[in-house]
Amino acid sequence: xxxxxxxxxxxxxxxxxxxxxxxxxxxxxxxxxxxxxxxxxxxxxxxxxxxxxxxxxxxxxxxxxxxxxxxxxxxxxxxxxxxxxxxxxxxxxxxxxxxxxxxxxxxxxxxxxxxxxxxxxxxxxxxxxxxxxxxxxxxxxxxxxxxxxxxxxxxxxxxxxxxxxxxxxxxxxxxxxxxxxxxxxxxxxxxxxxxxxxxxxxxxxxxxxxxxxxxxxxxxxxxxxxxxxxxxxxxxxxxxxxxxxxxxxxxxxxxxxxxxxxxxxxxxxxxxxxxxxxxxxxxxxxxxxxxxxxxxxxxxxxxxxxxxxxxxxxxxxxxxxxxxxxxxxxxxxxxxxxxxxxxxxxx
Amino acid sequence: xxxxxxxxxxxxxxxxxxxxxxxxxxxxxxxxxxxxxxxxxxxxxxxxxxxxxxxxxxxxxxxxxxxxxxxxxxxxxxxxxxxxxxxxxxxxxxxxxxxxxxxxxxxxxxxxxxxxxxxxxxxxxxxxxxxxxxxxxxxxxxxxxxxxxxxxxxxxxxxxxxxxxxxxx
Lengths: 347, 169
Prior knowledge:
The structure holds two protein chains of two kinds. By secondary structure, chain A is an all-alpha fold.
């Protein structure tokens, strides 16, 4: 016991423990989401998916993990060995770094950084570099093209996403995600999607523009996690598997984990920005640190499921359509919404 | 050696070490990737100096924008299978002169400056610099701000023009 208290007083150890907490969420989350994704996809397409391992295949994700851990770790002879090994870790670090500012409940956020959402946008650029590194180091044309497409897509869609975020920041007047959530904790009518805590007249004027910004953010976030309809970076019919074609075993598992972690991340950001983060929809009722975590994870998982639903419903877009949507549709509309929101807030 | 020192030296080693890789690496892709760690190290030092907004802007602009652009350029020009772009040594004498001048200038600034030393974590005041930067940009420094935005607008229009002309041909 004395050891624990003395260890807790140790600044360095405390920082490390604080930093490791989101990992305790990501690992079980990834297992559950892989299962949900497979089952949802199967039932939408009138299939059964896993049925053999455990009840309705519930043990399948564990079997998959064991399989991935045991697989031979193959590094192609012509690959650039050093960068090939470094790339998956860089991608995961970029994703995990963003988890630092997510407010899981009123009592816990890795860092209550004042620039929270700005930091989050910046940290995702590490992922882009990691993907480019993976594609180049694999020394494979499919991988390289997958990486270039992926990077181009993420960089383009960052702009409408950032503009949507800017709109919310203008309404809330803060970039700190914890403060942003506290502002919305008065119940469902105080969530940013319903105009936040502004007077009624402002709220009614703002709602249409916030909804447009929310849709823009949702579409951009789907593009940023490289999922259908925006999965041309790993379009199987053209590029085999995209930037992670040459990866196998544990390294592939890390890419996979990063991808699912990223999926939760963008969902969680949507939740914090527009749907009150850890705030309970009933105001004071069912609120508190533990309930906060419950609401945060539930809302986040709802958006994850929305992403899965759209992935298995919509067909893939072409490259030119992808760029058209980002630059000629979403960016001008987001810009317009931001300007109008600015005017409404001033009036 | 307290936590502040450890973190400072960590970022200093990352910055200087990776910057040396950028300069000395013969493979241009390695230089580009090492630049990532240089930018990261500099951002870390900005955070230690309590310049949070600057640190994150550094990451966003340099890693998210410029580094990705450099990587695109390198990857689309280098044929990964057959040719490696390598950097060699040339123009030894002019380079030495320029470097000597630069080193002299930096050394002069280093010795004459009155450095503010922040040694403890307690010294870091947890106030955000964003509000002050925002206020300064639209009050006292509004002219440079507007000029910068005009420059950016010109760059965007120019890029659009160049892209369009290519298509007409």
